[in-house]
Amino acid sequence: xxxxxxxxxxxxxxxxxxxxxxxxxxxxxxxxxxxxxxxxxxxxxxxxxxxxxxxxxxxxxxxxxxxxxxxxxxxxxxxxxxxxxxxxxxxxxxxxxxxxxxxxxxxxxxxxxxxxxxxxxxxxxxxxxxxxxxxxxxxxxxxxxxxxxxxxxxxxxxxxxxxxxxxxxxxxxxxxxxxxxxxxxxxxxxxxxxxxxxxxxxxxxxxxxxxxxxxxxxxxxxxxxxxxxxxxxxxxxxxxxxxxxxxxxxxxxxxxxxxxxxxxxxxxxxxxxxxxxxxxxxxxxxxxxxxxxxxxxxxxxxxxxxxxxxxxxxxxxxxxxxxxxxxxxxxxxxxxxxxxxxxxxxxxxxxxxxxxxxxxxxxxxxxxxxxxxxxxxxxxxxxxxxxxxxxxxxxxxxxxxxxxxxxxxxxxxxxxxxxxxxxxxxxxxxxxxxxxxxxxxxxxxxxxxxxxxxxxxxxxxxxxxxxxxxxxxxxxxx
Length: 478
Hints:
alpha/beta, TIM Barrel, eight-stranded parallel barrel, 11 strands
């Protein structure tokens, strides 16, 4: 069991065998000790220490160690621009949402990345997930970087804010207030090392308006405002990769005409509100027929999806040629049939978001008694979400994502024997998906196009999201 420091003194005692502090900064003096046990204690302290200052110090140490080790949180923007210019092709970057056991699961991803020389992969967490999984951006980033060090991974690490989404009801009641909320979580994420941000104002699209420009107006306006805010606060030497979304996942399929209306309005707003030279988005999310997490049937299985690859292909080709973007982004994908995944790289899909399928694997392989304990909690504490037409299987499928936050410590503290079936099944799934998406041997591209910049983590950068409050229900991740 890893030691969890309760004070600064305990923390210093833990790390002194592996690192030293010099006038030039932190120096690793024993990599073997660092990776064998000390990095474990650092991340468990960062996540579970009862002393906030000690937890924050552990996060700062993890970032400093990662920077020194050569594991550097980065933006994927320049690689995506190269894709837009046609210099790189043949793969779709997987963006994976880790809702629990983040450190352990990320280790398996980095293990695979080292074995298969993978460079193009992203870890992400959505605005809604931050709340119900009880993972602030600073904690999430610390887990990812600690996992990379543990597995001996060196190179750029891409961490993303997924679905930083405008709540349509809140926006209608208080537009400026909702914009401030989005700016606050975006700032917290960037301070934590999230140099990839997906803005989702597609919830504000108004299909009742007559023209496509009017329909997309609030979407492109607010996407541009957040883009300008990001450019103002991003660290020197880093161009944060920004994504936009034109089709609300679960709604009508997107069209090339909608993409054009959004992009023209977005470019015009950036020019009018900021400067003509401001760098814009690198990718655009579209709706192809999927829904977040899939649609559960009465027996708990997931309904088949009629995914239209022509949407990805046609809009992707259009935004590449006209605007130099990397292509389209597919959400709601992790529960799709396995035979579809090798088609994404063939259809101008530069990024694909994967979450619920991994959640399903975790529950399927969790100890039975533990799983039942979580399910009883959900039936008691979220019974108001159990609609009359839902079977128990459907209710549990829809709500079990909310069993990660309240049981976070228990998930992390499962024995190694209990974790192995979960982690082995996840690693097998990662390997299959990453191969089908064509990202084996992509480290050559990240080495060519990504120039990492070492940024320190400033303790105390946590707090814009109140994890004690349920908050308004938003669309989550896949």
